[in-house]
Amino acid sequence: xxxxxxxxxxxxxxxxxxxxxxxxxxxxxxxxxxxxxxxxxxxxxxxxxxxxxxxxxxxxxxxxxxxxxxxxxxxxxxxxxxxxxxxxxxxxxxxxxxxxxxxxxxxxxxxxxxxxxxxxxxxxxxxxxxxxxxxxxxxxxxxxxxxxxxxxxxxxxxxxxxxxxxxxxxxxxxxxxxxxxxxxxxxxx
Length: 189
Ligand SMILES: Nc1nc2c(ncn2[C@@H]2O[C@H](COP(=O)(O)OP(=O)(O)O)[C@@H](O)[C@H]2O)c(=O)[nH]1
Ligand SMILES: [Mg+2]
Hints:
Blueprint: E1 4-9, E2 20-26, H1 32-40, E3 57-61, E4 66-70, H2 81-95, E5 101-109, H3 116-127, E6 132-137, H4 147-156, E7 166-167, H5 176-188
Parallel strand pairs: 2-4, 2-5, 5-6, 6-7
Antiparallel strand pairs: 1-3, 3-4
C-alpha cells in the first residue's frame, strides 16, 4: 500500500466517484493524521500540534480508484462558531453520499475512552446504516498493567466487546499490521 495525496475538498458534493473507499473520522487531536501516515508508512497527512487544523476532506489514493479518506476532526472547541458548526454537515454530507464506502474507521483515544461526541458519532453511523469499526488510538499511553481492563472498559462504554475494537499505536506500531491488512481487504473486496 503506497497511497498518494489526491485531492482536498470543503464541499462533499464536489468529490467525484471512486471504486472503493474507507473513511476515517474522529475528534480533533485523536491521532487521525498520525495514524494515516503510519498506515501508509510515509507522510501523506499533515500532523499538527494545533487541534482542528484539518478542516477539509482529504483524499489519498492507493491503486486505481481506491481511496483513504481523512474527514475533518470534530469537536474542536475554539474558532469561529461557523467553523465549529461546519464539521457535522461536512462529515455527514460526505458519508451519506458515497456508494463506494466500504468502512468507516471511527477513532477514539484509548486512554480517554469514547467522549460524548464520539458516542454521538457512533450512534449516527449506526442510524445511517453505514459499516463502521472503532479504532482506539495512542494505546502506548495506557499503562501495560491497565491494558486489558482498559480495553474492556472502553469497549463496554460503547456497548462493544473488547475484540470489536482495534487497539493501535502509531508511536510503537501496535496493531498497525492488522489494521493495514483489514483496510486493504476492504478496498480490494
Ligand atoms: N503517544 C502517542 N501520541 C500520538 C499518537 N498518535 C498521535 N499522537 C499525537 O497526538 C497529537 C495529535 O495527532 P494528529 O495526528 O495531528 O491528530 P488529528 O487531529 O486527529 O489528525 C500529536 O501531537 C501526535 O504526535 C500515538 O500513537 N501515540
Ligand atoms: Mg489531522
